[in-house]
Amino acid sequence: MHSRKELLGRLAVSGATTLALYVALFANEAEVMASYTRTDGLYPLLPVVTALVFSFAHGAFTGYFWEALGVRPRAQSRAQAAGRTED
């Protein structure tokens, strides 16, 4: 759990990072397409690396967003965590 001020700071930073990534991607669309469609060298890995970076940044933002709203996962019982069902 984070303090409210710390949580809002992390939310703002992760949101700004995600926004900056999207702006950079779309502002450089021609260069991105030229690089990402090449088949030589390590260029085929660029889309995979980009997807991982965007996923990490967006996931962090989303996690802080829901935490700031007070949405948290429901706690599991020990039986559920162990994979047993209670009938």
Structure description:
Helices cover 69% and strands 0% of the residues. It is mostly helical and 87 residues long. The protein has one domain. Helix 1 runs antiparallel to helix 3 (46-69). The protein starts with a helix and ends in a 6-residue tail after the last helix.
Low-pLDDT runs of 5+ residues are none
- Overall 3D shape: flat
Question: What would the average pLDDT be, to the nearest integer?
Answer: 91
Largest sheet: none
Helix content: 55-70%
- Indicate the radius of gyration in whole angstroms: 19 Å
Q: Treating each run of at least 4 consecutive H or I residues as one helix, how many helices?
A: 4
The percentage of residues in β strands lies in under 5%
Strand element count: 0
Q: How many structural domains in the coordinates? A: 1
Helix-strand pattern: HHHH
CA distance, first residue to last residue:
33 Å
Q: Look at the helices and sheets and give the structural class.
A: mainly alpha
Which short descriptors sum up this protein?
87 residues; mainly alpha; 4 helices
Secondary structure elements and pairings:
Blueprint: H1 4-27, H2 29-36, H3 46-69, H4 78-81
Helix pairs in contact: 1-3
Overview in brief:
The chain has 4 helices and no strands. The relative contact order is 0.13.
